[in-house]
Each structure stands twice: as structure tokens, then as C-alpha cells.
Amino acid sequence: METIISLLIISGLICFITNISGFIDYFEDLIKNKILYKLFTCSLCQIWWVGLGYLVLSDNLTLVFIGVVALLSFLNQEITAILVLIQDLISRIIYNLTNLIKKIKV
Q: Would you kindly state where each structural domain of the chain is located, as residue ranges?
């Protein structure tokens, strides 16, 4: 279970860095090689390779965990959508709290 949670966290971090933060866009001009460019801009590829690397390093390289990594790679767009939803919910909560504070002060 700990390995699956770690893989979920890794997938969330990769999706955030690759798809939401725009961090990769800063290096777009520096990467001229198309294979390297695809590797750094594709969250599916990153989740797959980083997940497999994690499984190898943690001695959990089994068929079941490889399937979990494959599933998380496949669901990268859904993970990104969930992260955007969380971001929107937090923004809405902050907006409502600031409005509530303004009403209390007045």
C-alpha cells in the first residue's frame, strides 16, 4: 500500500510540474533533440519511467506494481484535471473567506 501511495504522489507531482506549472516551458528552447523534448514534455512518459525507476530502487518491481504504474501513466490527464479542480476549490474557498472578512469589517 505504501508503494501505491508513493506512486500516486509521484504521479501528482509529475503532472503538476509538467502540465500545470509551466516549468517545462522555460526549457523548451534549450531542448533541440525531439526525443528529449518528448521525454520532458510528456507526463505519460515521465510517470512511466520515473515510476519504473522508483519500483527498481525500492525493490518492488513486480507485475502488479508495473500495472499500477501503467494505469497511472494512462490516467495522467485525469490526474491533471483533479489537480486543477483542487486548485479551483482552494481559490473559491479563499475568495469566499476574503469576502466574509470584508463583510465582518464593514
A: 2-105
Contacts (Cβ under 8 Å, ≥6 apart) of 23: 17
pLDDT digits (tens, 9 = 90+) for 21-32: 877 777 776 777
pTM above 0.70, yes or no: yes
| pLDDT the model gives residue 26 | 75
Contact 51, 69 (CB under 8 A): yes
Q: Which residues contact 20 (CB under 8 A, 6 or more apart)?
A: 80, 83, 84, 87
CA distances from 54 to 9, 72, 74, 75, 83 (A): 12, 14, 17, 18, 22
Which of 52, 74, 48, 75 lies closest to 62 in space, CA to CA? 52
Give the side-chain half-sphere CA count within 13 A for 73. Answer: 16
The alpha carbon of residue 89 and the mean position of all alpha carbons in its chain are separated, in whole angstroms, by 17
pLDDT value at residue 72: 96
